[in-house]
Design a protein that fits this description.
By secondary structure, this protein is of the alpha/beta class. Helix content is 33%, strand content 15%.
């Protein structure tokens, strides 16, 4: 019952899902993606795992490469976060968009490797896309393959699980029926709204970068200010990826007029006219979780300082530990952080999945022994 279940991560990106499953006690065999910069970050941080550059839309080729990379190892769990642009409420909603069909790559991998369980993560908009057609199609496909499938309803809110960010995500989890597995119950929230980890709880200990842009590797300048910061700083002696952005004086002047928790609607008439949309000129609130971290770095601002958050600050808000170093250009790093599943959220789900896996194995072995 102390078995370390093996995992491969499809559409792994920089490794948010994998990091969470590492923290939950799994052994990650491989992460597969097409983004070279993200894979360099993945290989640098997810120790012992193969980082494979593959086009997962080419199912047969990618499956053969995965099999060659992991050798004769059995795969217990497949986790995946297919690109969400096709499903996103802000992106294309054309059902013929090839990105909407990338979950088929997960189907092929599950069908070939027959893991005990799988997990698919995506944006909440996927649940209602085309009146739920896409969601039901995914459920039916895996049910027909012999998996009992559970779906988050409503989507999970990351801040309910210790992540200092109001990020909503939906998950599909399936287990092999023939191994004795049944319905999977997603973990219940561990925090209510009054006890969410705030933006200040997450990043107040990081250097302000006033009068400096910082460096790629910096020293801590103060003690942790919260239990969350202590957790993020565990086993870390330095700060990675904490480099500021060189804003123009005009941009800093506009930011300075946005109140804490405010956005472009709070600016005086005629100020900040170049950006007028929902997330424009948004300043975080120190006493609340952050907004959803995106892949850019132009619209959200530090709750106190007149600048955008650094890659490390965004990584903290995503719950990446400080030991996790992002590689590539700064733009690539922001993208890697924004595309990731918060590791703490992945960890909570992974721990619950492991309990279910352990229980299923126990039931299956009891049935085998009874038959003998």
């Amino acid at each position: 019952m102390s078995k370390r279940y093996t995992v491969i991560d499809l559409f792994s990106g920089a490794g948010g899902l994998s990091q969470g499953f590492v923290q939950a006690g799994y052994e990650i065999l491989a992460g597969i993606d097409f983004d070279e910069a993200a894979l360099r970050t993945y290989a640098h941080n997810i120790k012992g795992a193969k980082a494979l550059k593959e086009d997962l839309y080419k199912e047969e080729e990618s499956i053969k490469s995965i099999e060659n990379a992991i050798g004769n190892r059995d795969i217990d769990v497949i986790i995946a976060g297919p690109p969400c642009q096709g499903f996103s409420l802000t992106g294309s909603r054309d059902i013929n968009d090839s990105r909407n069909k990338l979950y088929v790559a997960v189907v092929h991998a599950v069908k070939y490797f027959r893991p005990k369980a799988f997990l698919i993560e995506n944006v909440p908009g996927m649940a209602t896309l085309y009146k739920g057609t896409v969601k039901q199609q995914i459920i039916n496909t895996f049910e027909d393959m012999g998996y009992a499938v559970s779906v988050t309803d409503p989507p999970l809110l990351a801040s309910d699980y210790g992540v200092p960010q109001n990020r909503k995500r939906m998950f599909f989890v399936g287990y092999q029926k023939e191994l004795g597995y049944d319905y999977f119950a997603f973990p219940k929230p561990i925090l209510d709204s009054k006890h969410h980890v705030t933006t200040s709880d997450a990043i107040s200990d990081l250097p302000s970068l006033v009068d400096t842009l910082g460096e790629s590797i910096m020293e801590y300048t103060c003690e942790p200010q919260s239990s969350y910061q202590k957790m993020m700083r565990k086993n870390s002696d330095v700060i990675y990826n904490h480099i500021g952005t060189n804003h123009t004086e005009e941009v800093k002047w506009v930011i300075s007029q946005v109140p804490e928790g405010g956005n472009y609607k709070n600016l005086p008439p005629g100020v900040g006219e170049s950006r007028k949309f929902n997330e424009a000129w948004t300043r975080y609130h120190s006493q609340k979780p952050s907004k959803t971290i995106d892949t850019g770095h132009r619209n959200h601002f530090h709750y106190k300082w007149n600048r955008v958050p650094t890659v490390r600050e965004n990584a903290r808000l995503q719950s990446f530990p400080d030991t996790f170093e992002f590689l590539g250009t700064k733009t690539q790093q922001y993208k890697q952080v924004g595309n990731a599943v918060p590791p703490l959220l992945a960890q909570v789900i992974g721990e619950e999945m492991k309990k279910h896996l352990n229980n299923g194995v126990k039931v299956f072995m009891e049935e085998v022994l009874c038959e003998k």
